[in-house]
Amino acid sequence: MTSPSGSTLTEASAFLDAHPEIEAFDIVLTDSNGIGRGKIVRRHELLSIYEGGRHMPISILGLDITGEDVHETGLIWDSGDGDLRAWPIPGTLKPLFGTSPPRGQLLMSMYLLDGTPMASDPRHALARQIDRLKANGLTPAGAFELEFFLLANERDADGKVRPASAVLDGRRSAKTEVSSVDHLHGMEPLFSDIYAAARAQDIPAETVISEYAPGQYELTLHYRRDIMQAADDLILLKRIVRAAARRHGVTACFMAKPIEDYAGSGMHLHVSMQDEAGANIFSEAAGETWSLNLLRALGGLSATMAESMLVFAPHANSWRRFVSQSYAPVAPTWGVNNRSVALRVPAGDVRNRRIEHRPSGVDANPYLVAATVLAGISKGLDEHLDPGPETQGNGYQQPAPTASTMPPDWRTAIERAKASAFLEDALGPDLHRTFTAIKQAEYLRVARTVSELDYELYLHEV
Asked: Domains along the chain?
């Protein structure tokens, strides 16, 4: 059978010839929560995967954050939990740095047995939005930023997480070491391994900084002309960071808000749009203050943000990040060179004009985030939507119009997402059903759990 993903046996054969030392491969399919699910296969199995794909159960795309089946997705017993076929994603077969014995890694995507894309696979949702734009002569480009915490493996005496000690010399710091270069030196061995692993996988990891909370860091990725590749970069870089941290005896944390008194971790998406001639349609012409296309794209993103927030903040913990003056947006506002808004237009070269989309936490799925953002931009371009006036100064003190206000909590976000025709179109009906059913199941799990805070507040008081 010809691979519906475009993968070729030649790619696999050439890789095996070039890497005789590799004994096994992680084959990884990303579910709607952004979790990599799959198998470790032996070297001799690789060619057969390229020849005929690999059978995987349909239920692998219907799991909640714990790995439990969510029957309401329709992907479990309604289908008899039958096998579908996962196929290699071209260009993702790479060696893994630092593994012993040596292993490689391969990203996979799910298809029906006849080769049709399986619509509940998040990567296909993004591919669908890219194809829609290409049909209109547009190509999206972009890059994600990766914020995360490096934490000690053991919690403190109160059960709270704490920043990891420097892996270089064990030095501890509980301060907000924002932009401290000297602080980065303590994690130099870990970051050196991250960069080495990124090079091995052709991931364009660039600047690292110490971020605005104890133990928090940010890695940037080089801008990609292919936004699908940008989303792949983020998926792969998270896997690299997590593995490198584990090898150095610390925990890489991608929760949106692991420490209540400090800023959470975002996953900002920088996005622009090229026409068929390769020109950036967001760039203003001589005499223009702003390109109409840029304003309309901002209008679409603003108008659809309320119903899209479940994609950008998909977990209970995600909603702890949205606090005034925390560098996380609390309204669908836009502004220029302003980090208090949801949609930031960075200052800089007009030829590189882009939108920095800031609502998403690092716990979000980059394929779903990019698909939803592109759908919002498309809506704004098609319907000539006005984003309203630019926010200047402190955006936290300038509430947005009521009609486009963000939902206040996770439960409201789930209800808005379930009822949203826009989000159903952005993700496709099957993935929309799958994703919202999984989030509803996770909400019910959290809602029925009696937490330690419940005991602290009420055990002896009521």
From this structure: 9-118 (3.10.20.70), 130-453 (3.30.590.10)
pLDDT tens column, 292-336: 999 999 999 999 999 999 999 999 999 999 876 667 788 899 999
Report which secondary-structure segment, H or E, holds 280.
none
Residue ranges in the chain whose pLDDT is less than 70: 175, 179, 324-326, 398-404
- 92 class by beta-carbon count within 10 Å (0-12 exposed, 13-18 middle, 19+ buried): buried
Q: How far is CA 272 from the centre of its chain?
A: 17
Element of type H or E holding 365: none
Sequence-distant (6+) residues with CB within 8 A of 179 are 209, 210
Q: Give the other-Cβ count within 10 Å of 323's Cβ.
A: 15
Which helix (H) or strand (E) is 81 found in, with range? none
Q: Residue 95, CB half-sphere, CA atoms under 13 Å: how many?
A: 20
Cβ-count burial 146-166 (b if 16+ within 10 Å, e if not): bbbbbbbeeeeeeeebbbbbb
Cα angle 252, 256, 260 (rounded to 5 degrees) comes to 100
The runs of H, that is alpha helices, within 136-269 are 181-185, 188-200, 227-247
Residues 55, 265: Cα–Cα separation, whole Å: 36
pLDDT digits (tens, 9 = 90+) for 6-27: 999 999 999 999 999 999 999 9
Dihedral angle, C-alpha 277, 279, 282, 283, nearest 10 °: -140
Q: For residue range 134-156, what is the model confidence (pLDDT) as tens digits?
A: 999 999 999 999 999 999 999 88
Residue 355 · residue 281 · CB < 8 Å: no
Q: Residues near 390 by Cβ (< 8 Å), separated by ≥ 6?
A: 334, 335, 336
* Angle, vertex CA 29, rays to CA 109 and CA 426, nearest 5: 60
